[in-house]
Design brief:
single chain; 449 residues; 19 helices; mainly alpha
Length: 449
């Protein structure tokens, strides 16, 4: 009963927030995603559908705005890809591959996050600032929980049950300690989510003229980096390192900003190097292990799946996370540590081709990252992170099914891929542009708010 009430509350809150503003709706949605893991672990049952309810709430709140005639031409290609990527899984629900409940759960991991791209395409300066401030606060909350678990132990926050078996089974940190999940489903979700927030946080830190906002966002960045270390996930450490290097390379940060950023990185590195439990990333120096890990993810079983299931094994039948109380209903379960193999296993050749086509189209939108504007740094970082993240799908699972990491990833993809987005400005964008010392920009009249 409690889990059902929480789902209804999540829907109501995100719907109400989305009606107030897109930024507030996104923040409320991501707040539900941040707490999803720990609530699911303690409540079980219908708490598995908490984030689904929150997604539906924010989608319905933006329904009319998404149908805005002024955006039809600008978002024509993005709308087409979103429609294709959602309609094919809807068709697969009615195929006799998996029981209806398994297909519906699998629909989340294959299609429910995709419309976030349309929300990302409509982000304005004020929405990005709101989202960044919210993410900074959520990162700090997650770090507080992570620190408490580090010192007090996981058992004080996560009970051992079918939902948390993976968490308690990850005892490969130095000394036999657990990876820290903070308030997420698992440690990898914690690290992946905090890394996904970096483009928004770094972009707002670079752009915002408000000193308090910059300080809060800077603390949010530090919390994200510490979260990656606490999660002890090597892939996310690589992504965080890449985002840090890209920020230094083209962040156009002022001297005082560079000093502050350098001090922050130095402090995080000092914490890592003085604590063995935060040094799991050091195993990346074992080249033989890394080569075997990548080779296994790329080669093991892919062509077998292609030959045996050209039309797929049905939604939920190829590796999408299924609630423990439905696992026994999955027919002929297939699993492979490769996100694109998971798509092939569940959506067949057609679904994989659609995803590869969408990714190719997204990569072709790289010209947007060269456009000047008040949010150029954040946009470049978001596009770069998306490209890096899409590449990691070859050596792991969860890229398109993580809560709320996938929602943040797709949001950033929509923000950076929408045609004409660099010219979409509102009054706050113009103020921020002037404060940042950028050339004066003239918004296109048909796109001005």
């Amino acid at each position: 009963m409690t889990a059902t009430i929480l789902c209804a509350l999540a829907f109501a809150v995100t719907y109400w927030a989305g009606k107030r503003s897109l930024g507030l709706g996104v923040v409320s949605l991501l707040a539900c995603g941040y707490f999803y893991g720990i609530l699911r672990a303690n409540l079980l049952g219908f708490s598995y559908f908490l984030f689904d309810a929150a997604l539906l709430g924010v989608y319905l709140s933006q329904w009319r705005e998404l149908a805005d005639p002024g955006d039809v031409k600008r978002l024509a290609w993005l709308r087409l890809w979103v429609a294709l990527l959602v309609l094919w899984p809807i068709l697969l629900i009615f195929m006799p591959f998996q029981p209806i409940m398994i297909s519906l759960v699998g629909f989340r991991g294959n299609a429910l996050f995709i419309p976030m791209a349309l929300l990302g395409a409509r982000l304005r300066g004020k929405d990005i600032v709101s989202t960044s401030v919210g993410l900074a606060c959520l990162n700090l909350v997650a770090l507080a929980f992570g620190g408490a678990e580090y010192f007090l132990g996981l058992q004080n926050f996560y009970p051992y049950n079918a939902s948390t078996a993976l968490i308690f089974g990850s005892e490969d940190v130095a000394g036999g300690f657990h990876r820290i999940p903070a308030i997420f489903v698992n440690a990898h979700s914690y690290g992946g989510t905090t890394v996904a927030t970096l483009p928004f946080l770094l972009g707002s830190w670079r752009q915002s003229p408000n000193y308090k906002v910059r300080v809060l966002v800077l603390f949010g960045i530090a919390a994200a980096l510490l979260g990656v270390l606490l999660s002890a996930t090597r892939l996310n450490f690589i992504l965080a390192t890449a985002m840090t290097a890209l920020t230094i390379s083209f962040g156009r940060i002022r001297t005082t900003g560079y000093i502050a950023f350098t001090l922050l990185i130095a402090a995080v590195l000092w914490v890592a190097m003085t604590n063995e439990r935060l040094q799991r990333f050091m195993s990346l120096s074992d080249t033989e292990y890394v080569e075997n890990r990548i080779s296994g993810s790329l080669n093991r079983g892919f062509f077998e799946i292609l030959l045996e299931h050209p039309m797929g094994n049905g939604l939920g039948g190829g590796g999408t996370s299924i609630p423990y109380f439905l696992e026994g209903q999955v027919r002929n379960p297939i699993s492979m540590e490769n996100e694109y193999a998971r798509i092939l296993a569940e959506q067949g050749v057609v679904g994989l081709m659609l995803w590869l086509g969408f990714i190719a189209w997204f990569l072709s939108c790289f010209q947007n990252i060269f456009a000047k504007g008040p949010w150029a740094t954040g946009r470049r970082l978001a596009w770069s992170f998306s490209v890096l993240a899409l590449g990691t799908g070859l050596i792991g699972t969860g890229l398109f099914t993580a809560i709320p990491g996938t929602a943040i990833l797709v949001l950033g993809m929509g923000w950076t891929a929408a045609v004409g987005l660099p010219d979409v400005l509102d009054k706050r964008d113009l103020v921020l542009s002037k404060a940042a010392g950028l050339p004066r920009l003239r918004p296109r009249p048909e796109y001005t708010l």
